[in-house]
């Protein structure tokens, strides 16, 4: 069913347009080789990915700061797989990870097709909890920055999704209203419930095919957005 009255579409970036897991794996492969860290990449990622999600939730909830996020997710992962690494090496890996992550720019299948489809009829925007320096590089290096009229990140707004303040900040920047706006993202708490509780409509990009309850709109591929828009 086509949505009516929508003029502005806000996308999350990581895990929605930009294939974070794939790009992150390639980044770790590079920096482990550079620093001669003897670790099986698959074994590392199996532990790291849920650890990283947990620390991002703590960061969203203002329980840790950026520096702690970057250090502790690596420290906890190496401890769990019983590979001894020095604090200096962890800090170097954390710094190199941020530096090299935007150099890998795989997008989800259908990203460019959907952005081309939407751009003539909607104003497109980004709302991200990611760090400014990394997110801007991702948009530019993946050659999608020109599709978006505004980019709101949590450092600009002073809060993170799902806090309503960041949605209000983004809408003011885009000079639109919540009733004319739609949020598209993968994270149920930050993107979908954050937008819905703010009064914006939302569509969950459920690429991980988890159970979505209630009447929440969802797609499992970006191309399915054409059903709604």
TrEMBL record:
Task: Please give the coiled-coil regions recorded for this protein.
Answer: none
| Name of the protein described by the UniProt record | YjjG family noncanonical pyrimidine nucleotidase
Identify the taxonomic lineage of the organism of origin: Bacteria, Pseudomonadati, Bacteroidota, Flavobacteriia, Flavobacteriales
List, alphabetically, the Pfam families matched. HAD_2 (PF13419)
Organism of origin: Bizionia sediminis
Which EC class, in a word? hydrolase
Q: Which UniProt keywords apply?
A: Hydrolase
Please provide, alphabetically and separated by semicolons, the GO molecular function terms listed in this UniProt record. 5'-nucleotidase activity
- List the transmembrane segments: none
Task: State its Enzyme Commission number(s).
Answer: 3.1.3.5
Listed InterPro entries: HAD-like_sf, HAD-SF_hydro_IA, HAD-SF_hydro_IA_YjjG/PynA, HAD_2, HAD_sf, PGP-like_dom2, Pyrimidine_5'-ntase_YjjG
